[in-house]
Amino acid sequence: MPNPVTVLSLLVEELNNGRVKVVDLTQPLGPETPVIDLPPIFAPSPPLTVEVISRYDEKGPAWYWNTLHLGEHTGTHFDAPVHWITGKDRANNTTDTLPPRQFVGPACVIDVSKEVAEFEDFLLTRDHVLAWEGEHGKILAGAWVLLRSDWSKRQGSEAFLNAKADGPHSPGWTADCLRFLANERDVLGVGVETVGTDAGQAGGFDPPFPAHSIMHGAGKLGLASLSNLDQLPPTGAVVIAAPLKIVNGSGSPVRVLALVPA
Ligand code: MN
């Protein structure tokens, strides 16, 4: 007797025949991976260092493995609600306690690459979101909202972090836009191509760092340093982003995948 056709058997068939593609939204993670720069009064997050334990040598003749040292928020990574003080008292707010259902969700991709090419401090507003919804439909509850800026195409740490005398410059969101997404659309979280979910200048916003403050205060998630968002349709992709199950973790490097209709 043939196995019954289910949505999952169809998914496997579509993956096999190429009608559903797997797109990798992850940056390579290595010692050169850029890490957010904080003002020197705050503790810095270290970049990745890799130390070989053994590599088919006297320390381990048949095996290769490494020790990693890195901040939780290094490279393409996941922000859990406990990362910010506004989310510290929420239930199930850490990488080991978040419900795994939250690691799979549909993606709404808002393309602002042209605007960002013109103005690197571009901020997405509620009106931009409403205009996007006019074209693509209302953002569903539980959806990732991904800001396509093409920032991930910048080569090298200096261009990617884009620090100037007055601090870093990179695109993001207004506080009003984030309140709208969190409260009126009940999104899963926001994802960006930049080093963190907030705009470069967001330390001076009201509230400071609104993507962290507002989203995590509402129990929402963050994804930073994404790439290949230019390979996603505005709607119709499903994102899989599961952080390491670090006990009491505030976030973790993550391999972010999107299932995309070809
Ligand atoms: Mn982070």
Please provide a written account of the structure.
The protein has 262 residues and is an alpha/beta fold. The protein is built from 6 helices and 15 strands. The strands form 4 sheets. The protein has a 9-stranded mixed sheet with strand order 1-15-13-5-7-11-12-4-14. The longest helix is centred in the N-terminal third of the chain and has 11 residues, at 7-17. It is globular, with a radius of gyration of 19 Å. The mean pLDDT is 97. Bound molecules: manganese (II) ion (MN). Manganese (II) ion (MN) is lined by residues 73, 77, 79, 196, 224, 251.
Can you tag this structure with a few keywords?
alpha/beta; nine-stranded mixed sheet; two-stranded antiparallel sheet; binds manganese (II) ion
